[in-house]
Amino acid sequence: MANGFEALFKAYYAKLIFFANKYVNDLPVAEEIVSEAFSFLWERKEQYEFDENFSGYLYKMVQNRALNYLKHKKIQSEYVNYLQKNNLLSEVPTFEQNPIYHKEFEQHINQAIENLPQRCKEVFKLSRFKELRNKEIAKQLNISHKTVERQMSIALEKLRFKLQHLLFFIIIYFF
């Protein structure tokens, strides 16, 4: 199974990023969408046969994720517009006005990062805190570039899931 997955990953990763980018018009978002799709498949690799007929399913999966991203982005935008239109956004305290919120967010995020599997946590911290590129992380940890990409994808998916309850507040504070 892993060999079929790896072959599929090598054959379609870049193509799918290009495909997703046609929808979202944001390369980092397109990369994240494709990484999430592959992470989803990797976690369920025993359920699939990764053969040459699998590409259609893969493209549809990426398309659906891109469309979901656009839908959520539109909802966020409409909500922020509503808050601005009704002068509600100015009533929400910012981090500068209430540092307790900042500390709480930071605690939730740090806890979620610490709960990641060890390899995911290492890769995530090197990428986000030390700002290393994937190739540098691979060299430092003595793992393949693809393993770094997979681990980062898994880390982002797990963090997104664990922190989704904070999304509403993050939208208000950062948008």
From TrEMBL:
The keyword Transcription regulation applies. It comes from Pedobacter puniceum. One of its GO terms (molecular function) is sigma factor activity. This is RNA polymerase sigma-70 factor. CDD domains: Sigma70_r4 (cd06171). GO terms for biological process: DNA-templated transcription initiation. SUPFAM superfamilies: Sigma2 domain of RNA polymerase sigma factors, Sigma3 and sigma4 domains of RNA polymerase sigma factors. Residues 8-73 form the RNA polymerase sigma-70 region domain. Keywords: Sigma factor, Transcription, Transcription regulation. Residues 109-159 form the RNA polymerase sigma factor 70 region 4 type domain. Belongs to the sigma-70 factor family. ECF subfamily.
